[in-house]
Amino acid sequence: MNWDDESTNPTRVVGPAADGEDRAVEAALRPKDLGEFVGQERVRTQLDLVLKAARARGATADHVLLSGAPGLGKTTLSMIIAAEMGAPIRITSGPAIQHAGDLAAILSSLAEGEVLFLDEIHRMSRPAEEMLYMAMEDFRVDVVVGKGPGATAIPLELPPFTLVGATTRAGLLPPPLRDRFGFTGHMEFYSPAELERVIHRSARLLEVDIADQGAAEIAGRSRGTPRIANRLLRRVRDYAQVRADGVITREVAARALEVYEVDARGLDRLDRAVLTALLTLFGGGPVGLSTLAVAVGEERETVEEVAEPFLVREGLLARTPRGRVATPAAWAHLGLTPPTASGQPGLFAE
Predict the structure, then answer these.
(1) How many whole angstroms separate alpha carbon 244 and alpha carbon 328?
(2) Any idea which positions bind Mg(2+) (predicted)?
């Protein structure tokens, strides 16, 4: 199975990307204001000050940039910003804006004070990006009419609006664009306690009976991501309804997630396949990424972009100039004994 596009592959239950079902459920579970939003205390506090100050001045809120991994609540916060400002919201994405004309059409149709949410803003085309500079700073764009020597730039005034940009790769944003945002917030991964609060809130809205220990079991396997926590909750709910009495206890949650191949640390089949190959076939490494990908029957990009980030964050895998290496925690997690230092000289050497 190829895992390259998680958005079109809903079978990866711990994938951070949202599929159609996720979007529908998220719409129902999404908090409506900052008071309901769980976690991200620092960003919430700072954003609350920004929005309250803008309302007190009777002005449009500053442009906001939200960065962080998928599933942490960037879209939800953009909708809360619009709700707090009493403004409508327009939602689009960077990949959908491939020409400056696409962006000009969106900007020219905005109402005063409207919030424009631009997801994956780092994937916007360069011509559109350059047009956005002027739109954000001066609230106007120059629309080019005609081609060649006879082309004419017609200035188009825009009503004041708030751009909320979201990105999973803030480092790819050019400095001129990043500097035009009045507020930048980085979304952190959630703690298990915060995820338990998310799960309990979602369970109430979904009318699911869940015990505290059941919520803790799901939270511990949710990879620090609310979207994954909500997805696992739905899968465990299904299991509880079909094979138990409908109540999610720790035992029910553990059995359900075993069915879906999500282990106690949140690793799924792909994650464990990568670790198992690294440990059993290559003695813990170092091994090249391409070789490791062939060993697990996946594309190089799949291993690098889908499995590696979580394994590195969990301290189970490390990247070195010589290749990927397993950490002692990886051996312990899979219950294997690492080779002796003499058997694997320079195992972690760079």
Answers:
(1) 38
(2) 75
